[in-house]
Design brief:
Elements (H helix, E strand, L loop, with lengths): L3 H13 L6 E6 L19 E7 L10 E8 L5 E7 L6 E7 L10 E2 L7 E10 L5 E9 L7 E4 L2 E2 L5 E2 L3 E3 L9 E9 L5 E9 L2 E9 L10 E2 L8 E10 L5 E9 L5 E7 L7 E6 L13 E4 L5 E7 L2 E7 L10 E2 L7 E8 L6 E7 L5 E6 L10 E2 L9 E9 L5 E7 L6 E7 L14 E2 L2 E2 L2
Parallel strand pairs: 1-9
Antiparallel strand pairs: 1-8, 2-31, 3-4, 4-5, 5-6, 7-8, 9-12, 10-11, 13-14, 14-15, 15-16, 17-18, 18-19, 19-20, 21-22, 22-23, 23-24, 25-26, 26-27, 27-28, 29-30, 30-31, 32-33
Length: 446
């Protein structure tokens, strides 16, 4: 079995192919049900409401399943998507659970554009009416055309199914471009904002598109404000949104060969307009070597930003919806070389979850916050097998209004890489839902 670092390099190689010709796709998933969680204790591996178990159905075929993404719909359906190599090429597959993660359906292959397509790990975002958006980018050796975005929907009813793909933000004829690393957020009234890394017009930048229909029809893309100077390259976006209309975006950037830093942009009208935020000169390892930055916003105006750096995972908290941020804190254990952070926020409270993995690939860790990221509980390990190289890539995360964490990760305990899932019990001392606070003039109102 390859080491965790080796598998990370494999994922990075797949991602790099998109600079030649990439396709980004999206899909919405209809909800089918929900489930309840039970209580547990906080020492060592968490007393899981659902113990770690494999959810992909590739069998013992020696192929890899990589890069899971996870979302929980408004009706309680858990959807996990990943890149699957069972057919010799990478394709995105998704599995659903209607019983709070106890069991998952057989996986469904999302529609590829071409017969020779290679898909790179997806992103998942719940939207409205029990639906969920899946986004990924794809390359096809048989397509000699500029790369472009595509969308497809999983229709509801008793037999949900995916529709065919349709383009989103294609480049102009004759313009060679590539799209990669999609991230989506859903805020007020099901308004979806999609960000991605885009290489057209001679530089790498962050573009965004918006849909008022839960992702059914995304509008044309445009560059996101916040680049510092004409020579700024921007990579690896992150985005989060709340029901009040707040949208917060972050990314890695570098200007004219200078140091890597984190840039931000902010919207208070559900992504219709953005205002450039601060440039946070945080000590990044290098672009992408510790994963993308992560953001989350709570319904009462709290926001959190996390990133990997030399020495661990660090975070900053905001009490005004990301307009300003407090001091940097290190959230990983002292001396733990931690990478690939991911943040998730509950839909109706101030619960946040922050997860990462250690660089040796032994553990996936999570810390929860009941106050929107102002403070965090002690780290807890999510996986139950901790041999070196067991865990690869970035974990996937969701959290509900009880503080129960839903997580998926790439796990190599069987000798190849599979997708595992676990759900923790609700956190002790769970707080009631926090009322949303409207945002005005760039600040959270009292």
């Amino acid at each position: 079995m390859e080491s965790a670092r080796g598998m990370d390099r494999c994922c990075a190689t797949l991602q790099a192919t998109v600079t030649v010709c990439g396709l980004m796709l999206l899909a919405t998933v209809a909800a089918v049900g929900g489930g309840a969680a039970a209580a547990g204790d906080a020492d060592g591996p968490p007393a899981a409401a659902v113990a770690p178990h494999r959810i992909d159905d590739a069998g013992a075929d020696g192929t890899a399943q990589l890069g899971p993404a996870l979302g929980v719909t408004s009706e309680g359906t858990i959807v996990v998507a990943w890149t699957d190599f069972r057919d010799g090429r990478g394709h995105v597959r998704a599995a659903l659970s209607a019983d709070a993660g106890e069991t998952f359906s057989p996986s469904t292959a999302l529609p590829a554009v071409g017969a020779n397509a290679d898909a790179v790990p997806p992103a998942v975002q719940p939207t409205r009416r029990g639906e969920l958006l899946i986004a990924w980018h794809e390359t096809d050796a048989g397509v000699a055309a500029p790369s472009f975005l595509l969308t497809c929907r999983l229709t509801g009813g008793g037999s949900p199914g995916f529709t065919s793909a349709t383009p989103v933000d294609p480049p102009a004829p004759g313009v060679l471009a590539s799209q990669a690393n999609p991230r989506a957020a859903c805020g007020a009234d099901g308004e979806v904002v999609l960000l991605w890394q885009d290489h057209r017009l001679g530089r790498v930048d962050i573009r965004h598109a918006r849909s008022s229909g839960g992702g059914a029809q995304l509008g044309g893309g445009e560059a996101l404000p916040g680049a510092f100077g004409a020579g700024t390259a921007r990579y690896l976006p992150a985005v989060a949104a709340s029901s009040t209309g707040l949208v917060l975006a972050a990314w890695w950037q570098r200007s004219n060969g200078g140091p890597w830093e984190i840039g931000t942009a902010r919207s208070i009208d559900s992504g219709r307009t953005f205002r450039a935020g601060g440039r946070l000169g945080e000590p990044a390892l290098s672009r992408g070597s510790a994963g993308a930055p992560a953001v989350a916003v709570s319904q009462s105006g709290h926001a959190a930003l996390a990133w990997g750096e030399t020495g661990g995972v660090a975070a900053r908290h905001s009490s005004d919806g990301g307009d300003t941020f407090g001091p940097r804190i290190v959230v990983s254990a002292a001396g733990d070389y931690a990478v690939y952070p991911v943040l998730a926020a509950a839909s109706g409270s101030d619960w946040l979850g922050l997860a990462w993995r250690d660089d040796s690939g032994t553990s996936v860790w999570v810390r929860t916050s009941a106050d929107g990221g102002a403070s965090f509980a002690a780290p807890r390990r999510l996986n139950d097998v901790t041999a070196v190289g067991t865990v690869a890539g970035t974990p996937a995360l969701a959290i509900d209004d009880s503080g129960s964490v839903y997580a998926a990760w790439t796990d190599g305990r069987s000798g190849d890489y599979d997708i595992f899932f676990a759900r923790t019990a609700p956190s002790d001392g769970a707080r009631p839902a926090a009322p949303p606070r409207e945002l005005a003039r760039g600040f959270a109102s009292p």
